Amino acid sequence: MNWYVLRVQSGREDRVAENLRKRIKASGLDEKIPQVLVPTETVSEIKGGKKRTRKRKLYPGYIICEMAAVEGQIDEDVWFLIRETSGIGDFVGAPGRPAPMAPREVQSVLDTMEQSEEKPKIQIQFEKGESVKVKEGPFESFDGIVDDVDAEKGMVKVIVTIFGRPTPVELEYWQVEAI
Predict the structure, then answer these.
(1) Which DSSP symbol is given to 174?
(2) How would you label 89-107 residue by residue, b for 16+ Cβ within 10 Å and e otherwise?
(3) Beta strand pairing status for 97-98 and 93-94?
(4) Taking the model in full, what pTM does it have?
């Protein structure tokens, strides 16, 4: 079994993948195409003062499928089933010769999906040099400039002017907002 990347209509990845799964089941090709995945990761973000987790597509416009292939050639029934599914553009690779994903690439995508399920990745939308306003904590209503972003810890280092002197302050990402 090899994994292949399929180009699909952007924004319709889930619908196309579900449609493909139904067609696979209806045609009895379950053993030749055991998995169809939309690579996603779980991200945590704060909007409107509320913490939310959502799924974000790793590769918009693409889905991945595990398929049986003999000597690098995909079975004709599988080939036509995929090509005739609406919403699917083509395989990634040379025209007429789909290129399978390398095992390390597949493992990397699957690991990313699994890790984000266990511990959602924090999505911090601040960049170094950006002007922000502290909206909570002891420095509330102070303006500052982002000096460093630590996405792993969910912390943002902001340079705030206190008594006329620039002072670095570490805050959690949800305590500041862009100006």
Answers:
(1) G
(2) eebeeeeeebebbeeeebe
(3) antiparallel
(4) 0.68
